[in-house]
Amino acid sequence: MDDYSSVHFGKVLKKLREARHLSQEQLAHDSNLDRSYISILERDIKKPGLDTIIALGKGLGMRASEIIKELEEQPENEWLLKDCFGIRDNNINSFMDSGTLTHPEI
């Protein structure tokens, strides 16, 4: 796989939102995004960019890297880190510990 077409971001986003007992409306408000966009993301109609993942992290009370970790932990997304981030051992912890992602929001 060489594109994001099969990344199930919406499944992960909905799981994280529901685990925090947030409505789409509340997450949208806390993330400074539109509620309809949250719905679009959760249904995997569109994929978010990095700025959106950072905003969603703020709304969820977590770092963008934690959202990426959740994505990596989904079996159907295991190719993501390998193909898109160049990680060969599929181990997000060693990737994060390496300091590769140094932006304070990530």
Write up this protein.
This is HTH cro/C1-type domain-containing protein. This protein has a single domain, classed as Orthogonal Bundle (434 Repressor (Amino-terminal Domain)), CATH 1.10.260. The protein contains seven helices and no strands. Helices cover 56% and strands 0% of the residues. The longest helix is centred in the N-terminal third of the chain and has 11 residues, at 9-19. The chain is an all-alpha fold and 106 residues long. Helix 2 packs across helix 3 (35-42) and helix 2 crosses helix 4 (50-60).
Helix/strand class: mainly alpha
The proportion of strand residues reads under 5%
Order of helices and strands: HHHHHHH
Question: How is the quaternary structure best described?
Answer: single chain
CATH superfamily: lambda repressor-like DNA-binding domains
Please, how many helices?
7
Identify low-pLDDT runs.
99-106
CATH overall fold name: 434 Repressor (Amino-terminal Domain)
Q: Tally the structural domains.
A: 1
InterPro entries: Cro/C1-type_HTH, Lambda_DNA-bd_dom_sf, TransReg_Diox_bact_type
Protein name: HTH cro/C1-type domain-containing protein
Domain HTH cro/C1-type: 13-67
Keywords: DNA-binding
Please give a quick description of this structure.
With 106 residues, the protein is an all-alpha fold. It has one domain (9-97): lambda repressor-like DNA-binding domains (434 Repressor (Amino-terminal Domain)), CATH 1.10.260.40. Helices cover 56% and strands 0% of the residues.
